[in-house]
Amino acid sequence: MPPPDGLGGYVLAALLGLIFGSFSTAASYRLPRGLPLGAARSACGACQHPLTAPDLIPVLSWCLSKGRCRHCGQRVSWRYPAIEIATALLFALCWHQSHGAAISAALLALMGTALIVITVADLECRIIPDAATLCLALCAALWRWQQALPLLDGLLTGVAAMALAMALRWLFARLRGVNALGLGDVKFLGAAGLALGSGQIAPFLILSGLLGVAFGLVWRLAGRGSVFPFGPALAAALGLLLLFPIG
Fold it and tell me: What Gene Ontology terms describe what this protein does at the molecular function level (predicted)?
């Protein structure tokens, strides 16, 4: 069955994005806290009442309940609809940038889902979950194969990016006594190198640095301290270059 054309393709992509966005809300909460993804049903964080089908419709359930639990009346965080809407928009953008190529759009969307999970987890817990990075790397390898890009180039670029990150981590530890990069950042750089290859890694490093500086300034102005998670800047830079490659 061929993929839908025109508006139908965008609508289907957005609907799938809402579904994957619902998964992303759970994954971004559970993975950095060491909780299993599928071992227990979702429940209200306040009253622990298990959520049923009417509570789990992406965005709509939150809107109909006016952002409150149907059972205890406690407020439900806006993170849930925000992540779901962001994922829906991302899926539609992946479809647009893939020009109707369903497999390419699907792989881009899966990488985008991993990037959203990584961003939220690092913002909330200062942790980049290994499972999300592994998913990103696997999808990146499949995407390079699907795009007929040399896999070896991606692998070598990933190894080089990790080596550079480890060198910077060691240097900052020796000179300033701090870990400028967490191990999660190092692993992420390996996955990013695999996805982008040698032709895009330099723009990625520059863009992630610029975004990191901007994010760090906003973080400080918001009174969150001088130490900020670097994962969101890395994820944003990788996502932008996957969707809008240079050259």
Answer: aspartic-type endopeptidase activity
| Residue from 246, 219, 3 nearest 109 by CA | 3
Helix intervals (H) in the chain: 6-30, 60-64, 79-97, 102-125, 130-146, 151-176, 183-196, 198-221, 231-243
pLDDT of residue 235: 97
Q: Are 33 and 108 in contact (CB under 8 A)?
A: no
CA pair distance 15, 19, nearest whole angstrom: 7
Query: Do the Cβ atoms of 216 and 173 come closer than 8 Å?
Result: no
- Domain holding 194, by residue range, is 6-243
Half-sphere exposure of 152 (CA within 13 A, CB side): 0
Half-sphere exposure of 134 (CA within 13 A, CB side): 4
pLDDT at 181: 80
| pLDDT band, very low/low/confident/very high, at 69 (cuts 50, 70, 90) | confident
Q: Is residue 1 part of a domain?
A: no
What is the predicted pLDDT for the residue at 161? 96
In a domain, residue 229? The reply is yes
In a domain, 184, yes or no: yes
Whether the pTM exceeds 0.85: the reply is: yes
Q: Distance between CA 119 and CA 238 in Å, rounded?
A: 12
pLDDT at position 40, please?
67
- Structural domain total, the chain: 1
Q: How far apart are CA 181 and CA 192, in angstroms?
A: 15
Q: What angle do CA 80, 181, 154 make, to 5 degrees?
A: 85
Q: What integer pLDDT is reported at residue 51 of this predicted model?
A: 75
